[in-house]
Amino acid sequence: MYFGDLSVLFLNLQKKYGGIFELYNGTARVIWVGDAQLIKTIHIPSTKTNFPFRSRHSWIDEVAINTIGKGIFFNHNLDSWKYNRRILTQTVMLPSFLRQFLKTTEHWIVKIQSELSSRTTTNRPANTLLSYYNKLSSNVSKVSKIQSTEELMGRLRTWLVTAQFVYFLPRYLRFCPPFYYFQWKHQNNIQWLDDYLTNLIINRKKEIENTPKDKPLGLDILTILCTANTERGPQFNKPGDEPDEPMDDDNLKQNLFDVIIGSIDSDPAIKSKVCEEVDQIFGNDRSHPMTYNDLENLKYIEACISESLRLLPTVPALFKQATSADNLGDFKYKGGQEFFINYHYVHHDETYWPDPTSFKPERFLDKNFDKNTYLPFGGGIRICPGRQMGLNTAKTLIALLFRNYTIDLVDPNAPLKKIYVWANECEELK
């Protein structure tokens, strides 16, 4: 039983045994792949690939929120998966959504500044974040609603623990002492999430129904998904311009869950270049509203983000399952074989990344690298559909922070405190 950082264990195992090896998770054979050229075979960007699924083993059904065959991440039905991915991808790329996203992010930064100023000068909260939330919401927030949202965030983190628990602990052990208690706890958490998201969708649909048709609706992802291909929302088409159908509640619930689950300062020279780029684009006018074109021009900041994701990918490893028998390298496998793809190892392979442990954003300025050696969002047909939104979020926050603050770490040489539960999460940064 291993209780340390699993992402470190994954990296060390791959370094020890090489680009491809196999081990057993309980009685299940798992082939680990960290060779970029072999991963290229797995990540063929076509639905005819031998690896169209994350996994179809029973464990993935156990962690789904009662919506098997819905959404994107847990969907085993390719036709249903194509539909959901098509709608979700078009949703997050809507120009109106992107404009509202930038506007909302800028407003949050202003409110955070007020909150920090009030805390620093008076040791009292300014409550600007709450008032801004009330402005965006149709109902005035109550303490119970805020607590409920905080509980949701905590339970989503618990769900990541659930997925790790179910994947790595064989099923027969999960029903034996002392593990059966955790099995019960995780199943209750999944049911809570299912109930919460169901009620969220029901209430949002009621809000939409009660909103006069001449009044514009919100431009958040849930509202767009609820109204897509209806008279109140955007019209998305299938390939060939054939109209798509509206999304049912189960797909709404799973897509909402997928979206929620699916969110520099050690070198003074690098920080100086970031500040220089921010000054070049925005000048001295701190009130200048950010545009999508501004985001596109933040090339050095984007390179810093890319290099950060190379050094420490948010999701260092993912699984894929083969549909039919074949071979990969010298390894033969049967249909249903599960593969564990170690992106973290690929990102630290000296063959492709000289001096791999150093932070060098310049690697990404000329885009002169093999795309199969840089995989922070996965690859193939299951590549993260929200990757551009994630990059835009990071670019916006970094630009706005450096535009308004001089940021220094207390101890630039101190190690990053993080935890890994399917995804790397920073616990403390000083």
TrEMBL record:
Amino acids binding heme: C384
Major site of localization recorded for this protein: membrane
The entry's keywords: Heme, Iron, Membrane, Metal-binding, Monooxygenase, Oxidoreductase
Similarity comment: Belongs to the cytochrome P450 family.
Protein name from the UniProt record: aromatase
Name of the top EC class for this enzyme: oxidoreductase
PANTHER family, A to Z: AROMATASE, CYTOCHROME P450 FAMILY 4
GO-annotated molecular function: aromatase activity; heme binding; iron ion binding
One GO term describing the cellular component: membrane
Top-level division of the source organism's lineage: Eukaryota
Presence of the UniProt keyword Transferase in the record: no
Entries under PROSITE patterns matching the protein: CYTOCHROME_P450
E.C. number(s) listed in UniProt: 1.14.14.14
Subcellular location: Membrane
InterPro entries tied to this protein: Cyt_P450, Cyt_P450_CS, Cyt_P450_E_grp-I, Cyt_P450_sf, Cytochrome_P450_Monoox
Spans through the membrane: none
Cofactor(s) required for function per UniProt: heme
Organism the protein comes from: Racocetra fulgida
